[in-house]
Amino acid sequence: MNELESLKSIFKDRLFRIPDYQRGYAWTTRQLTDFWEDVVNLPPERFHYTGLLSLKEAGKKEWKQWDDERWLIEDRGFKPFFIVDGQQRLTTFVIFIQEIVNLVQTLPENEGKRDEEIYVGTFNLRQIQEEYLVVPKPPQFIIHTYKFGYETDNPSFEYLKHNIFGAPNGGSIEETFYTLNLENAKRFFKENLLNAYRKNGISEIESLFKKTTQNLMFNLHEIQDDFDVFVAFETMNNRGKKLSNLELLKNRLIYLTTLYEVDELEDDDRSVLRRKINDAWKQVYHHLGRNKSKPLNDDDYLTAHWIMYFQYTRQKGDDYIRFLLDEKFTPQNVFLKTEVKAETVEEVREVSDSGEGEESESPDVEEVQIKRARLSPKEIEEYVGSLKSAAKYWYSSFNPFNNLDLTSEEALWLDRLNRIGIAYFRPLVTVSFITPGVTSFQRVKLFKEIERFIFVAFRLGRAFSTYRNSEFYRATRQLYVGKITIEKVCELLNERVEEWLAAGTEFDYQPFKTYVQRLYKNGQGFYGWNGLRYFLYEYEVEKVNQAGNPKIDWTYFVKSEKDKISIEHIYPQTPTDPYWNQQFSAFDEEQKNILTGSLGNLIPLSMSINASLQNDSFSEKKKDKFNSQGIKVRRGYNDGSHSEIEVAGYQDWNPDSILDRGLKLVDFMERRWNIKFEDSECKKDFLFLDFM
């Protein structure tokens, strides 16, 4: 069967189910906008080719298990189909139609009316719902059969039924990476349909419904062969919004379960293994989507888990891409043909009466070929189990606060790692939660060592981003399988930090100084250092620990809106006030530029401030600033962050003040990250203030 059909024709006497190997709803605003514009801009008398819809009819063995659907198939002759390709578009269509129903139901003129009395064109809402969305089973109407949905126990189906179609009594519904997209599509169509109604009235909504159901045409294709289903799924889905590696891997693992012979995997075990794969992916996508404002990338998680689960080498770090996710993936790649002997024949020696041995004739040994899977069913079960269990801690590593799975100390240090830039250590952090016997105290110690390593090696030492990554990827795997202790990993981190220290304990700051020197040539100095905000924030945290009352929120501190600043040059970059000329008159322009960009001249602000006030004199900066109406437009240093209050304690702000505060900050650096400069002259050199 291969012909053009409208949505109205396609939905007639058919049930659609998304099989378990399919990914969830993946369309985002970009695809939704394209869909909306196609429908809106389509002339009412024109048809529009929407694409290929590939289906495979569900067998009786499969649909006999569908309690809610069986009556439509047996009593009304509906044909059940699995959607191989086209589920993203069909999902979008049903959400769109449901939002049309929702909009029309809420119009003032329809208040108090039953669905049978409300019309969109010549169709009442009950007809629309039963044709495209849900059919209740008479006479009790206990069963409600959805014409489009998911085959297995899937959070997306529960979300679709209760949060999209509005079925009552949803209870607690698990949300995942994919339900976020369903929610976004509902909101997108709700807003756009309402705008269209307000602009052009009900006739516009009726036109959109008619064009969607009658003018958008599919090329319908039914697939017969089971193998072709999996191949078609990958090929067709990669033409549109490309499958992620995690989505593709699920499809291929489920496909593998269909290939094992009965002597390798009995039918009951096959069903259980397939269910475990589905359950693992359900849990993974639940955790990836738990933070709605910042859903996590699925392929990043797959790569990280591979690092912890398989031995990593720089040459073979992408084995999973070349084997399970290879573009030329075929059954022959999964099941290797190996020559083996059917039996082993021992050498037999007959002994004669004379004592002389005589060899008997050895029988022929038949060599046969048998299939040996590169992955056994047990290996798949263990792998997906690990993938499932690690996802919870992967989420926690990104979202430490308000997380009941973490202690306050763990959350504090994970937050630090996220702020400084956790680099390639997130798999190691995740494994620290999975490894049996590791205590919270040990984890915090590990997080502290990682944070120190990152600050010293990357923020100060200017190491390449891949420095020692292979070594710590291997340590991650070794910790996971119990071949190394967490104490040993901490020792290893500490040893690598010491490599950046010269003469035993003295910090070799020359690579950092060379880096900042380049920043000075760009007119920035320390202001351009990628570790500045983290460093100044940590200095502020020390002050908070001493005095209490936190005054800087990291979220706002790192923002860089055009009209707001979060780090200020105390001695301004454009010092127009006469005060500054007086304080810095003894120095030449090059020295003034160095002083402006020096570490001690930079201060974190407790609130966003109008940038035009930066050039005030020091005495003006210390006090609050008001406009002509008496409204405070700027908080002074005296009432600002702990760092601002400290600066406000200086009587004047001059080169000596910049040096003095810079030395205080370097002293903090020594305390905080356990490094040591040789002497005060080295500290001045580090600050580029050796001319002072």
In words, what does this structure look like?
Strand 5 and strand 6 form a beta hairpin. The protein has 4 domains: 236 residues, no CATH class; 128 residues, no CATH class; 100 residues, no CATH class; 181 residues, no CATH class. With 692 residues, the chain is α+β, with helices and mostly antiparallel strands. The chain is globular and about 95 Å long. About 6% of the residues have low confidence. Helix 12 runs parallel beside helix 16 and helix 13 crosses helix 16. Strands 1-10-3-4-2-9 form a 6-stranded mixed β-sheet. A two-stranded antiparallel ribbon has the order 5-6. It has 30 helices and 20 strands.
Task: Quickly list its features.
692 residues, alpha+beta, six-stranded mixed beta sheet
